[in-house]
């Protein structure tokens, strides 16, 4: 397939591009600077501009654009960046798809487990209702922007949680542990939906040829709590797991980011994509963390 991808040079995008090319696909990356390579096409999502030729030649479009939610603090200005970076990029791609004479067969657009908000005691499926808070509103607007293309192509929103790999949030958690700060975050019993970087990219590849549409959860089938993730990382870097961070302190220092990134309980089910035939490679948290830290 000829695949057009935004965010192709990011943490997930780099691995996805590698896997796609290894599988024989042609990948063209959208960039915000003047093109320097044959596999690049320029766009300006802030101005909602994209050369329609880029979409006309694509069999599939994959959207990974969006400002990092791990960057702290979430000031009012940065909250606006988090929202607009996602909605503008998605709207630009979706609009271009609707205007194409020969639209791509599928539009895979990034999404997040943040849609569900804090849901202790629940198993979250794609049919679970939206939660409350900042991130649910962002994800809802993000997904709605992609659905503009639904009349002309299959649209899939892959809802991702914590991606464990060599980089991204893993590096932050590793640094915390190495500095001796690993310990219970709040109660530590809140579920953190995790997935390996390899399986994240492989899951997106699976969705290229699937018949699924709408939201699809991407999380390893074995759930883990925040305590289990942090304890595993501490053990791997040979540091103690002991220093608790009370919920009140996390909320006081990080406000919405603390409540929604660290303390939210989200037991995300991957049953839909598994029943569709996708087989996870990395299902053991300890082995996944070890590979991530070794990379």
Number of strands: 12
Instruction: Please identify which CATH superfamily we are dealing with.
Output: NAD(P)-binding Rossmann-like Domain
CATH class category: Alpha Beta
Q: Numbering strands along the chain, what is their spatial order in the largest sheet?
A: 4-3-2-1-5-6-8-11
What would you call the shape? globular
**Domain unit count:** 1
- Percentage of residues assigned to helices: 40-55%
Distance between the termini: 29 Å
Oligomer: single chain
Mean pLDDT, all residues: 96
Radius of gyration, taken over Cα atoms and rounded to an integer in Å: 19 Å
Family: Belongs to the NAD(P)-dependent epimerase/dehydratase family. SDR39U1 subfamily.
Pfam family, one: Epimerase
Organism: Subtercola boreus
Protein name: TIGR01777 family protein
Describe the secondary-structure layout.
Blueprint: E1 2-6, H1 11-22, E2 26-31, E3 40-44, E4 49-50, H2 52-56, E5 60-63, H3 76-99, E6 106-112, E7 123-124, H4 134-146, E8 154-160, E9 162-164, H5 169-178, E10 194-196, H6 197-209, E11 214-218, H7 226-236, H8 247-254, H9 256-262, E12 267-268, H10 271-275, H11 285-294
Parallel strand pairs: 1-2, 1-5, 2-3, 5-6, 6-8, 7-12, 8-11, 9-10
Antiparallel strand pairs: 3-4
